Amino acid sequence: MITPQDADFHFKPDSHWQWVETLAFPFAVPEANINGVIYVLTRPMLGVCMCDITLMDRITDLWEEQAYVDNQQHLPCPKSLLEFSLPNGLSLKATRPLKHYEIQYDGIDDTRFKLDFVALHEPYDCNDPAMDPLAAQRNGPAWDSSWSGHYEATYRITGELVLRGKRYAVDCVETGDRSWGQRPERDNGTMIWWHAGFGDDLTVHLFTRHDIAHSNDFGALVSGYVLDNGQVHGLVSAQGAQEYRKAVPMGGQLAVTDVRGKTLHFTYSTVNSCYWAPYPSNTYLQASMRVNHNGRIGHGIQQLGLSRAYLGRHRDALSTRYGG
Amino acid sequence: MIRPEEADFQFSSTSPYDWCETNFFPFAIPEAKISGTIYTLTRPVLGVCMSDVTVLDRIAPNWEDQLYVDNQQHLPCPKSLLDYSLPNGLSVKAVEPLKLYKIDYVGIDDTELHVEFRALMAPFDMNDPAMDPMAAGRIGKGWGGAAFSGHYEITGRITGEARLRGKTYQVDCVDTLDRSWGPRKERDNGNATWIHGSFGERLTVHAFLVLDPANTNDFGALISGYVLEDGQVYGLVSARGTAERQGIVPMANTFEVTDTRGKTFQFTGATINATPWAPFPSMIYTQAYQRWNHAGQIGYGVQQDVLSRSYLTRNRAAIARI
User: Fold this and answer.
1) Does residue A6 lie within any of the structural domains?
2) Has the ipTM of the complex gone over 0.95?
3) B140: pLDDT confidence band, cut at 50, 70 and 90?
4) Closest Cα to residue B158, out of B200, B107, B108?
């Protein structure tokens, strides 16, 4: 179970220099086809912090063709994750850790936002067998060694975005996460991190393996949940497949079954995407999606975690399979 | 003038957190259309170091389509730039600082590099008016504000062996390294093209020019540069050129430089491998390796277009029309 103390740093004096602690807060303005990501990756043992602010509004290969990119790799690491300000203009305050975050950013080119993230449920601990039915069989971290600790939280996000001088009201449901543990920067495992929200009463989130150089199918389910009318139900299985252009997922279909035995079906299509690479050893192909569940329209994100080691190793297979 | 001690760290106890010191070594196997970069960017005040080993072998719009990419942003900063080993498998030893470097890298997927860089010239100090005729007009304003508080280039012969995904190549080329030190921010840095061509040991031309590809194919004002001819270095007094592009990637060049002797050199260039390399994500260093033709002589070298992602996103509509 995740406790409020887990919202702050976990490293110890003898932690490895590769120890990472992250915070990810996505948000969206679906009616304008805008998706934003606020991603902070700290390496507290090195005293350094990466911060990425990316705002996407179209389907492109290139990250720099999106609406706004501010990625800084070498900022001083904050003393606490509960309240900090970075030299890039980002300020975060955990007004109530795990439950309510106030996040503000003043960037360049008349771009800024002020957002409230209010959690719709208790954090989903992928390592707690009492919460995640797949945790026990994993016997350890979910993804490489980097997730000694990991949780997701689905939020109602409200506030205002000013993007290159144009104002947008933000009022959406999105899912963020936080991880801590040792994380190398080469050849990390491949992964799909997928979620869709249909208002406060329904969100589906899942992590699966994949091997897109050889298959369009989703790989084994690692972890996931259905948030259904305020109650969280762990996933026991997921099946799906998607179509790709190059390595970018463009659409697909998915079925998930939770611990109640309830199965939910989805189809989805990509509405904006790019090869996002908040740290260059890994591309997180970010595809924002319009998702259809029995005629109900929701919005979400999938991040295809693909190391550049994997992409380089399989470049010809990927090109042959999905086009170059 | 660059002194041997400037091959090592220059930061002091009062340097800001964004103080940056770099080490860049290129290599190439032109006959196989392969070029590579070994780039170390340190932030010694923070205690962190970025190391990038990228090997290109094709014209590709995505970096990950290239032959080999190993970029790690958050490695422990070495104590010295004269002799260091990093956890990614890179070792650099300045056998004779500024003159002879031994570089070894043992990566993954049966990929290793073992090369020596032997200088063919004393470092070209772009901030020394006695060396660079353009320096007096812009001391302290080289590129990106204060990023180049110190900066030099050295052209050298690089020899050794590269094993790339199990295939072994002999390396024997002439190419140009650089090193910079000073505060360097990670947003909205200025644009420049860093361009050079080598025709064996007898002739290398190197130049830095302003760049604004959203508005013109022409290179902008000359910042700094030199001709290395028969062992002698002559600063550039003027340069001009143009690049036809696909997106931001230069595909074909014309280039002309004039040095302090009044001697003019003319070149055409064709890209033989290229990618929007981004060793740190706030910038794209579009790396386009050129086959140059100078009066019938064939040479090779890189055009590296330095463009911030701030500039690229701000001008994306204009760039999409290229």
Assistant:
1) no
2) no
3) low
4) B200
The pLDDT score that the predictor gives to residue B235 is 98
CA distance A73 to A182: 18
Q: At A266, which helix (H) or strand (E)? A: strand A263-279
Using CA atoms of A43, A187, B276, B114 in order, give the dihedral in degrees to the nearest 10: 100
A9 within domain boundaries: no
User: What is the residue-wise DSSP string for B69-130?
Assistant: EEEEEEEEPPS-SSEEE-TTSEEEEEEETTTEEEEEEE-SSS-EEEEEEEESS--EETT-TT
Residues of B in contact with A43 (CB under 8 A): 48, 74
Residue A225 domain flag: yes
Tokens describing residue B154:
């050295």
What pLDDT, in 10s, does the model give residues B246-291?
999 999 999 999 999 999 999 999 999 999 999 999 999 999 999 9
Please list every residue in chain A whose beta carbon sits closer than 8 Å to the beta carbon of residue B314.
109
Q: What is the pTM of this model?
A: 0.95
Q: Do the chains contact at B65 and A319, CB–CB below 8 Å?
A: yes
Question: Cα dihedral sign for A283, B278, B289, B267?
Answer: positive
Interface check for A85 against chain B (CB to CB < 8 A): the answer is no
Q: What is the CATH number of the domain that holds A245?
A: 2.40.370.10
